[in-house]
Diaminopimelate decarboxylase
Amino acid sequence: MDLFEYRDGVLHAEGVSLTEIAQAVGTPTYVYAQSAMRAEFAAFQEAFAGLDHLICYAMKANSNKAVLGSFAAMGGGADIVSGGELARALAAGVPAERIVYSGVGKLDWELEAALKAGILMFNVESAQELTVLDQIAGRLGLKAPVSLRVNPDVDAKTHPKITTGLAKNKFGLDMGLAFAQYLHAARLPNLVVKGVSCHIGSQLTEVAPFVDALERLADLVQRLRREGLRLEIIDLGGGIGIRYNQETPPTPREYAARLRPVLEGLGLKLVLEPGRRLVGEAGVLLTRVHYAKTTPAKHFVVVDAAMNDLIRPAFYDSFHAVRPVAQNAGNGQRLVADVVGGICETGDFLVRERDLPVLRRGDLLAIMSAGAYGFAMSSQYNSRPRAAEVLVCGQEWAVVRRRESIEDLSRGEELAPWMI
Ligand code: LLP
């Protein structure tokens, strides 16, 4: 669904002109189309209809309260990876019994907070984490619901920095060791063994690696059954890709159709942790051209957003499409240019060597497919206040996170006492 379209020559987010938002809120600003997010969530629900399932949105992709609240209102849960995410999810109205907790480095206070909140399950990633969780649960007089996150060693065929299910990655428990760990976990007094989970990587554009992983997990589930250990939940993680350029990722329906036969045979509750897919294409980063600059080697368009706002191009060399907000920008003249930010790093670019309209000071641009891992990975590097976030729904729009102020930059800082 393309919810960013030109109307009367101006790019709109649903029914709202991006020019209007830029004038009212300034730039850089993240703009999210709520209908697109809801439509993606509904597509998952429909694809798995008839199977007992729970969609736990991987909130690391975009943890804005309004985004989380949109999914919570549709029956969604959350996949969390920190105590901070736990607090945000609960505050946004995600019920604790719809929260799963992943991550290799859960801290003691985080385990304790999640136990007290009563989450659905901990996706445990090491033998030592099992021991620590058992001890903390015992001290609190609680039982910890656990699943072991296994590493199925399948190649997700995605960018090396976002592949997670290979044996050499830090994530999960080795498949060969998982069986023994299950028998061990079942004997620990303060744990309740609930399920099995995996997450093989992000931005996957094929279904086959998911099917491979599911089959390996299904095999483990059957072996455990023969030992008398009955699981209730299978969690396949997230990872379905989106379209940044020419990719053709599977739809939730295609994904579900390939998994369904194996899942039906298993009879377990399915948990999924999609992040990017639910929010990525629904968001743009709105930025204004500040300077156009030509060196002997290249043309540069310097904008007011930078790598501190959207680090994906610098970090993963990732592609984001860019569209001028005014359809007639450049009046038909085009040029190959880099779109760069004002940060003092050569790696600070948003777009490289792209055929673009000739852009002038004051022109607005939308960096597309920026709803996932955009604001969430932003920073204040170079002492730049973080961008505002706006949510659009039909003709309505609202600021759902105000732009940071200059005062926000040094909040909490003090001189040392001997300096005063
Ligand atoms: N579950 C677990 C345990 C994860 O580690 C992740 C993502 C997800 C679910 C959600 O994956 P998704 O559906 O969004 O692909 N910053 C990178 C992506 C890092 C993904 C990390 N884990 C990027 O900008 O491409």
User: Anything to note?
Assistant: The pocket of LLP is lined by residues 58, 61, 79, 102, 162, 164, 199, 202-203, 237-239, 273-277, 312, 316, 373 (CB under 6 Å). The chain has a mean pLDDT of 96.
